[in-house]
Amino acid sequence: MSQKALLIGSSFSAAPIFACLRKRGLKVGVCGKHPTDPCHQYADESHFIDYSDRDALLNLVRTGNFDYLVSSCNDFAYMSGAWVATQTGHAGFDPFPVAEVLHTKAHFRALTCELDLPAPQSFNPAGVAIDDQRLPLLVKPVDSFSGRGVTKVVHPKGLPAALDLARANSRSGAIVVEEFIEGALHSNSAFIANGTIVADWFVDEFCTVYAYQVDCSHHPSCLSEVVRTGVRAAVSRIVEHLGLVDGLMHTQFLCRGDEYWIIETMRRCPGDLYGGLIERSLGIDYTDRYVSGFLGEPPKPAPVSGPAKFIGRHTISVASPIAVHAYSTRFPGSLMALIALKNSGEVLQPAPHDKLAIVFNQFDSYDDMVATVPHMAGLVDLEPVDGNWNLV
């Protein structure tokens, strides 16, 4: 009899994880409250529950006799999974108190302070004195994703509205206030086994439509070896200090010259098909490495590979609502894949709340990639529905 896995999440980002589990010969159940989500269409079992309801997820896991529990690509999926796995003993999740440290912005900022890691300074929202010397500041919900509810405060009068917006986008109503650092955004995906990084990759990222949501990225990265070494050392200190289990450790950080600042880290798979960027550039199976931790296997070391292909990834989004009939791209090089996320004629809402498609493009040279990727949004042509109405 085939063993069973429960995939926590049913959206398009979970589909590669589903395919990997099925490829391994597992029977795959899927949970997610939206019946129209892609993974429900081909799951062996569909469970239409809100997986952020931890008690509901625990009941499903206990009654469904699942051998494995696998998180998809958002914090709610991982945190609920960690809460359940702490009680059931399923592999791949850190103990829930450890998961809370990593996935709650205020707790993580306290950790970077404790370990004396380079990171933005944070302030108590209730007691911070705002003056021109501390501005600008960033105000964030402690538990949101995709940059929702984040505001850059450049004047003291803007603080109350920023605090209200952050609270409105937090399920817990909790917020964090931190210094704003000017720098380039990057990420490091590190796979750890027995407390050691056995494979990792760096990606350069850009937020060009909405200031706090990545919509363009490329591999290979432009980062210096000095920064790469520093980030790996910081990640390793966190892994050792918290005693993290085998699996993925994905970290976002800012860089200016050879300086870097750790912004956030997560143990779940990054969204918007991030793994596809690494897979298309290097030919390695990022998703299988991610899944291995939840199956009780240590991630495999990085294979010896040939030169990286120059790959850009773009999540097509807009700043204002529009009903899109068709779209096309004008990127140099060759289009590798276009993953449509909406139907023709549907209304596309503004970022960070909606996405039209994800595009992977191969460039002929490193210079073409670096010159083009930060500007990919301007090289997408949207054809609106004829007589497009004002949707604001």
What would you note in describing this structure?
The protein is α+β, with helices and mostly antiparallel strands and 392 residues long. The chain folds into 3 domains: 4-90, Rossmann fold (3-Layer(aba) Sandwich), CATH 3.40.50; 121-179, ATP-grasp fold, A domain (Dna Ligase, domain 1, 2-Layer Sandwich), CATH 3.30.1490.20; 184-384, ATP-grasp fold, B domain (D-amino Acid Aminotransferase, Chain A, domain 1, 2-Layer Sandwich), CATH 3.30.470.20. 27% of the residues lie in helices and 28% in strands. The protein has helices at 15-23, 54-64, 75-88, 96-103, 105-114, 159-168, 225-242, 274-282, 286-294, 366-372; strands at 4-8, 27-31, 45-47, 68-71, 122-123, 137-141, 151-153, 175-179, 184-193, 196-206, 216-219, 247-256, 259-266, 310-316, 322-329, 334-340, 347-348, 357-363, 380-384. The strands form 4 sheets. An 8-stranded antiparallel β-sheet has the order 13-12-9-10-11-14-18-16. A 4-stranded parallel β-sheet has the order 3-2-1-4, sandwiched between helices. Helix 1 (15-23) packs across helix 9 (286-294) and helix 3 (75-88) packs antiparallel against helix 4. The mean pLDDT is 92.
